[in-house]
Known about the structure:
By secondary structure, the protein is an all-alpha fold. The protein contains 19 helices and no strands.
Amino acid sequence: xxxxxxxIALLIIGYFTYGKFIEKLFGVKDERPTPAYVNSDGVDxxxxxxxxxxxxxxxxxxxxxxVFGPIxxxxxxxxxxxxxxxxxxxxGAVHDYLTGMISIRNRGAHLPELASKFLxxxxxxxxxxxxxxLLLLVGTVFVSTPASLLHLLTDGSVALWIFIVxxxxxxxxxxxxxxxxxxxxxxxxxxxxxxxxxxxxxxxxVATNAPIPELSFxxxxxxxxxxLPLLFFTISCGALSGFHATxxxxxxxxxxxxxxxxxxxxxxxxxxxxxxxxxxxAAMSMFNGYNGLNEILAAGGPGAIVSESSTILLGAxxxxxxxxxxxxxxxxxxxxxxxxxxxxxADYLNIAQKxxxxxxxxxxxxxxxxVVLTQIDFNLLxxxxxxxxxxxxxxxxxxxSMYLYIARKNYFVSLIPGTFxxxxxxxxxxxxxxxxxxxxxxxxxxxxxxxxIILVLFFKAAKKARANNIPLEIDVSDxxxxx
Length: 483
């Protein structure tokens, strides 16, 4: 219990200390007009309040990641707590803040456009394809998981395909309509349900004095559970997730002032970390150890853990509400995944999105592809999503590093976690069956050598970019013309 409570305390302290340090390092220009006003179009660029933006951001980035990921990560024992806390404060929240703020400085640009500007034009095409693929995988996965949870919640009385059709219908509406019509109106209520359900489970763990394992040298992780590199891909949302880099530009286009950025981008990542801690603790403590947890996961997956632990801690009614809170998570990330994909493709092809028809002809093919992807094995999709997700995080952290390097600021705050994850990303794809399936010693060597080569190329490009005085932001007077 002490490890669990200390972890949550450290996350909160991290927001007020390291979050403040990152904000000061970046250098807020609160008098500078934001894209919400300069590029207002009534569809994607719309000024919204800080509480509303914060809840939307939390729901956008959360998905099932801070629930299902930590539940699976609980198999690695208390080591999962370390990754959630350290990863969230020093990697994930820095990633989200820099991505959101750099986007604000560049008229709400998405990651492919930022990668093109700061990492080279070739990267625009690479990252564009990578981002759209990731978002399609996210959207598809986040159709399947909430549909399965709802199917469980109704004891199978309602066919699974009915839930899938209903969720797809909602996604189409949310993707095509202006951001304030559906997302802006529903998300505050969804956000309240999410927070209440997570807090309910957390309070239930404390009130029942649940036997949450304590961190120690003897109890660092279960014997035989290899942490590296799998833990960093099992738990992504709640620690570090590249998917967030595709979501923050949605809110960078609705943020009123730069000063709001720490609450919206850094703060909501910390909130996600707290949610991850709660569900990791629940999974570790309620099923007679790791063997019992493994058995339930094998039988019913993470959804079964959510349903059973919620019911045990909160009773039938409270448990149902908690499960609904978890159902909200993937749905409110799935809709914005498709929305982000539409916006990224529109930016890439330079297609204005004010007309409904322009939005529709980009969005509908995305949904058609997603329907096909739902026929692929979920576990296979999830593994590819994990790798694509953390690869995107590496790209976003390197974009942030390049920005800070050109600005002659402390770029190590993003380069260190970016390089760490780069080693993990290369090692993972070289060692896993979804990749090259090579022996671990060869994979580790490839990870370190590959990362070293990329670092050399990064510094070579960074010195050239600084010498050429690449502008860090788009001048406000040029925004309209640029858009």
